[in-house]
Design brief:
The chain is α/β, with parallel strands linked by helices and 225 residues long. Helix content is 49%, strand content 15%. A five-stranded parallel beta sheet has the order 2-6-1-7-8. Strands 3-4-5 form a three-stranded antiparallel beta sheet, covered by helices on one side. The structure holds 2'-deoxycytidine-5'-monophosphate. 2'-deoxycytidine-5'-monophosphate (DC) binds next to helix 2, helix 4 and helix 8.
Amino acid sequence: MVSDPTIPVIAIDGPSGSGKGTVAYAVAGALGFHYLNSGALYRTVALAALESGTDLENELVLRDIALNLIAKFDGESVVLGGRDVTDVLRSEAVSLAASRIAALPEVRDALLERQRAFRQPPGLVADGRDMGSVVFPDAVLKIYLTASAEERASRRYKQLMDKGMNANIATLLQDIRERDTRDSARTAAPLRQSADAVLLDTTQMSIEEAVGQVLALYKHARRVP
Ligand code: DC
């Protein structure tokens, strides 16, 4: 399916834990737009690979898994092979595997069309790392959403505590730093703010404030130049 360039896309990129998923989902809700959580796609491929015992360096087998993935993405929930995997996708094991497979160009290519197919009327809010740079370079608004590593670790810590899970803030901070380095250092679509993206640092911002800012920027971007 060819994606229709007249359908507006808001691309929200940024590092893990910056809150971009929550913000993107809320913006999509406010505008009545579709929502693409591209990280969930990478995470689902990683989960399918882990469960089938695939070597995480076997790029061709991983590409086939990505191409043939039968998964349903509905808002924030993901169903893989009839099973709701939304929570397991957030586990540290899947996060680590997703970060490794996302560095492989064959896997990224295999997911390209699947991501573009989310561009449906009346519009799309897409979050990830390369939404504005690679997948939707003609997005009407590109945001680079970030927060300090300490703030992101503390948000993740609170999330895990709320779920009654054990966590160590120093380990979480170290994991976040390692993932940032891996996501930024890779050659295939590395994580970085592109020149045409607006920087939004949410370290001192509530979710509501961040959503309000994105909506205001979108209104502005839609104005005739
Ligand atoms: O956004 P997230 O933390 O759920 O993403 C999971 C992993 O997938 C992360 O290591 C970065 C990678 N990713 C990517 O490389 N490109 C995207 N568009 C989205 C995610």
